[in-house]
Amino acid sequence: MRVELLMAWPRRHQSLQVDVAEGTTLAQALQGAGWADIEGVQGYAIFGVMAGPGTLLREGDRVELLRPLQADPKDARRRRASRPGS
Fold first, then answer.
1. What is 11-80 written as a DSSP string?
2. For labeling, which of 8, 31, 72, 84 is most exposed (least CB within 10 Å)?
3. At CA 59, angle to CA 20 and CA 2, rounded to 5?
4. Coil/strand/helix, residue 5
5. Which long-range CB contacts under 8 A does 53-56 form with residues at least 24 apart?
6. pLDDT tens across 29-84, in order?
């Protein structure tokens, strides 16, 4: 079965399609793709839903490697709203 691995940084991303056997876990897919030891990964999601390394993958899943937030979204919104002309 085929799954997609996705990693994003500000202004760029990397996506990789990998073929895995049925019953493959998220951790096994990352290991097979050489993405298991990427620094700065805080967690994982499948189609935006939090997932753990032991999560079994299904055909067509999109695994997202999550980085820590660089700014609190609420604070960023307050700053934008307080600008003149907003």
1. TEEEEEEEE--TT-BHHHHHHHHT-TT-TT--EEEETTEEE-TTPBP-TT-EEEEEPPPSS-HHHHHHHH
2. 84
3. 45
4. strand
5. 53/25, 53/26, 53/27, 54/25, 54/26, 54/27, 55/25, 55/26, 56/23, 56/24, 56/25
6. 999 999 988 888 899 999 999 999 999 999 999 999 998 876 677 877 888 888 88
Task: Say if residues 69 and 44 touch (Cβ distance below 8 Å).
Answer: no
pLDDT mean over 1-29: 94
pLDDT of 17 reads 96
Interval 1-10 mean pLDDT? 92
Q: Would you call 82 helix, strand, or coil by DSSP?
A: helix
